[in-house]
Amino acid sequence: MGNSALRQLASLEEISFDDIEGSIVAIDAHNWLYRYLTTTVKWTRDEVYTTEDGTEVANLVGVVQGLPKFFEHDLTPVFVFDGQVTDLKSDEIESRREQREKLEDQLEDAREEGDAIEVARLEAHTQRLTPVIQETTRELLEFLDVPIVEAPFEGEAQAAHMARTGAVDYAGTEDYDALLLGAPKTLRQLTSKGDPELMDFDATLGEHDITWEQLVDIAILCGTDFNDGISGVGPKTALKGVKEHGDLFGFLEERDEYIESADQIRAMFLDPEVTDDYEFDTEMNPDIDAAREYVTEEWKVHADEVERGFERIEESITQTGLDQWS
DNA sequence: CCATCCGA
DNA sequence: TCGGATGGG
């Protein structure tokens, strides 16, 4: 479980929205949507966002409800979408697919037994971001003139890169991988209620007196999206071991362990494939009526589910004057 | 996030 | 006995 390990090493600081007013944030679109769908929309009451042919577009509700949070705090989101899937990650995706199949079996059992709570819980876990969800999200964002960047591979890596080059002020994701990717400052908890959390890269390295490379090695020892990690090794042991030996290899040797393609995994974080060939305009000029029509007419999402969201978008935009022409 | 387990 | 890792809810 790489995530919980990194959480313990990360330098995290609670901040307020006032501190980051006016900032540009590169949002890992996949992560943001996934968070939103599992926590807020929760796939309950699917009649609200399911078309006659059974296509579920809960994401449209999620986007409309989630965007006001940015605008009301005068934040400009830049949504970064995933591109091609990388080889190493394919294994992970494959294993997730297997896991999902397992979950789907359990789901079937729960349905048969009429266990409604278990059904709801499992449903939340078996959902995934379908191509329709990705595509309709893009289109809705385009109506609202929200900046979009297409990553060549991992959206997360591209977002971190944009933060590193200063193209944006922050990366925005719940994922601790942003640290491994070297995003200088990452905002977390942008979707949930309450205050956001700032994760600081340099402070993290400084607190433990380690290099970026060593941080990545520690994460690899604990397990990442790309590898399982060493059993019995958590953040403390890995930190100590890497500092003692300088990197993960000495540590592995000592414990007579081996990690498949450790070098490639390192490179996924230290030198991922990203691009500087993109552009976005932070001067937003949304067509809210067209967006509303797209969601409620074209996709037949119940109007009352999104009305408040659209109102909030309208209000926040006139207030902050993001859009000076309409 | 907490309870339980494991190993030094 | 305790710090750290794990796993389930």
As a percent range, the share of helical residues equals: 40-55%
Q: Tell me the overall shape.
A: globular
* SSE order, one letter for each helix or strand: HEEHHEHHHEHEHEEHHHHHHH
CATH class of the largest domain: Alpha Beta
- Structural class from helices and strands? alpha/beta
Q: Provide the gyration radius in Å.
A: 21 Å
Largest sheet: 7 strands, mixed
Strand order, largest beta sheet: 1-7-6-5-2-3-4
**How many domain units?**
2
Kindly state the mean pLDDT as a whole number? 85
Low-confidence stretches: none
**What's the CATH H-level homologous superfamily of the largest domain?**
5'-nuclease
Chain oligomer state: single chain
**Total strand count, please?**
7
Subunit structure: Interacts with PCNA. PCNA stimulates the nuclease activity without altering cleavage specificity.
Binding site for Mg(2+) 2: 175, 177, 225
EC number: 3.1.-.-
GO molecular function, one term: magnesium ion binding
